[in-house]
Each structure stands twice: as structure tokens, then as C-alpha cells.
Amino acid sequence: MTSSAKWNKIVVVAATLLILAVVNWAIWAKERHLAEGEVIYLALAPVDPRSLMQGDFMALNFEVANRIQDALYDRHSDSDESHVADGHVVVHLDARRVAHFQRLGAKEDVLAEDERRLRYRLRNGRVRFATDAFFFQEGHVERYELARYGRFRVNERGEPLLVSLHDDELEKLGEVER
Questions:
Q1: pLDDT 10s digits, 16-26
Q2: Are 91 and 100 in contact, with CB atoms under 8 Å apart?
Q3: What is the pTM of this model?
Q4: What share of the chain is helix, strand, coil (3-state, %, to 5)?
Q5: How far apart are the C-alpha atoms of 141 and 55, rounded to whole Å?
Q6: How far apart are CA 120 and CA 99, in angstroms?
Q7: Which tens digits make up the pLDDT trace of 57-110?
Q8: Taking Cα atoms as reference points, which of 174, 176, 178, 159 lies closest to residue 57?
Q9: How is residue 82 annotated by DSSP?
């Protein structure tokens, strides 16, 4: 084997190990987020009924996202909104841990005891929290028709991660009855 072939083999092995390390770190970080993140509920808001249920997923929109959209529009109604970037919103948690819009916020805003900071993203002009769809097993649409809240785990940076959908009483949907 030539030295060039040996060098190529070393590069391939090193790159493979680096990729595996990065993937495993990302998995560990998500698992930690799910295990240790603070539980917060976001109320679902209506979406286009034609895209609500499409086979094995449900299109999602959240009331807080609509309020952020309105606040961003009010803030930038005089100018081009294309410069608006991802950001943070400050929400108030009620006794059931349901989040309610308070104000657009920054990382350095001082929060009250019942307030939390959530990171949102702007995608195609729409405010998104973690995802805009919830996937479920095909043929189980009826289990999710009562969805009124999304349950999130939020890490210390305000990143929300959707865990499950819940009804008006915050009961988890999709549980198989036995």
C-alpha cells in the first residue's frame, strides 16, 4: 500500500469518527433536553383546515406564535419585514403551566418568577416553535382530533422541544387504551 493510500484511509477513518462523535453528542443533547427541560404547554391555534390532518401528520400552529406575528407586524409595519430575524418571546405561565404571550423579549431581559423566555424562529414569514407538524401512526387521526395544547420541554436557552399533544384538560392524547 502506498503512503497516499494509507493517508487516504487515515483521513476516512478520522472523518468517520468525527461524524459519529458529532451525531452522538447531538443525540445526547436532545435526550438531556427531553429529560431535564421544563414542561410548558402552548395552546394550539387554528390552521388551514385543508392541511390540518393529512394522513399521518397534523399541521400545527400555536396561539403564542400568532401573537408574536402580530407584535412583529406592529413593530415593523413601516418597513420591510425581511430583516426580522429569529428571536425570543417572554411568556407568563399560569397555574396549569400554560404559556401566555407577554412581550417580545431579549436574552438579557429580567424575568418575573412566573415568566419564561422561549426562542422562536421565522420560517417563510411564519413564527415557529420547534416544529409545525406532529406525526402519528397512520389510521389514528381520531385520537388527535381533540388536541388543544402542545406539551414542550424547554431547556435553559429557551429552546422548546415538542413532546406530545393534549386535550382541554391537559390529558395526553394518543395513548392506546388496553
A1: 999 999 998 88
A2: yes
A3: 0.74
A4: 35, 35, 35
A5: 8
A6: 14
A7: 778 889 999 999 888 877 665 555 445 678 999 999 999 999 999 999 877 778
A8: 174
A9: G
